[in-house]
Design a protein that fits this description.
6-stranded antiparallel sheet, Creatine Amidinohydrolase, 4-stranded antiparallel sheet
Length: about 290
């Protein structure tokens, strides 16, 4: 779940309250083991939902499956009841944002239809630590324009993660995302950002999807981030619907959202929100690259 960057807004105020003096909390090796466990758990949920997205399914059905998987594993759906700075509590286990909805969408009984795109954002708390991840999925066959939007958003996430090396800066993450997104003319959402993560879903620092290289906080081993580019086909401007949560594009054009939780290590970034199978595939790919 993204956090608002406008410090005058409720999300910004919530961030100040949650992070206190905005100190970035480095995780111990014991903490990281717990972060890996919750990351795998929420990745399993994400991939289960991915396989379910077809024309005719509702986001309420997806939400029910996600909540059951989390609770059956002994985890808490982090989003349920989340109420920063006096907002109405968020009522669902996932954020389900369709087409022009960017983030924080409510699940409904409206069937998804061929040609839609749906962004699913989810988090759970397990043994005291939070894993947070998101994806945008085409519903059936979608236009080439939407396929490219999803692809580029995923590429931006990968490029942002590549910047998460010791002694780099948080500004390097946003700069890499911005540079790639702007090649395609996409609107980069500025009102909501990625964030630090650990025992709380939203920790310092804020991680905008735009910025300048060499600026902001220095990245150190043990930091854990949730990086989540949000790109729009049109304007970067947003508005919030009457439910006080759902954020949509101001011009009504489609949006895409992609997110991983990662840990910064001395060997580079470690993506935590991968399934065991995805981790093995990634490890095999790296081995083949080295030996090729």
């Amino acid at each position: 779940m993204s956090i608002g960057v406008r410090m005058s807004g409720v999300f910004g105020k919530a961030f100040q309250v949650l992070t206190g003096k905005k100190m970035i909390i480095a995780k111990s090796q014991k903490d990281l083991e717990k972060m890996r466990a919750v990351g795998e758990l929420i990745a399993d949920v994400r991939e289960a939902l991915r396989s379910m997205v077809v024309p005719g399914i509702t986001t309420l059905e997806l939400n029910a499956v996600a909540e059951k998987m989390m609770r059956d594993a002994g985890a808490i759906p982090t989003f349920i009841g989340y109420a920063p700075h006096g907002m109405i509590p968020f009522p669902f286990a996932i954020c389900a944002s369709v087409n022009e909805a960017i983030v924080h969408g409510f699940s409904t009984d409206i069937p998804l239809k061929e040609g839609d795109v749906v962004s699913l954002d989810m988090a759970c708390t397990y043994h005291g630590f939070v894993g947070d991840t998101a994806m945008t999925i085409p519903v059936g066959e979608v236009s080439d324009e939407l396929k490219q939007l999803i692809r580029v958003t995923d590429e931006c996430l990968a490029l942002g993660i590549e910047q998460c090396h010791v002694n780099n800066r948080v500004g390097d993450i946003g700069a890499a995302i911005q540079m790639h997104a702007e090649k395609f003319g996409y609107g980069i959402v500025r009102d909501y950002t990625g964030h630090g993560i650990g025992r709380s879903m939203h920790e310092a620092p804020q991680i905008p999807n735009y910025g300048r290289q060499g600026t902001k906080e220095k990245i150190r081993a043990g930091y854990c981030f949730a990086i989540e580019p949000m790109l729009n086909l049109g304007t970067h401007e947003t508005k919030t619907l009457a439910d006080k949560w759902t954020v949509v594009t101001k011009d009504g054009k489609a949006s895409a959202h992609s997110e991983h939780t990662l840990a910064v290590t001395h060997d580079g970034p470690e993506i935590l929100t991968l399934t065991k199978e995805q981790k093995l595939k990634l490890k095999k790919g790296k081995t083949e690259t080295v030996t090729a």
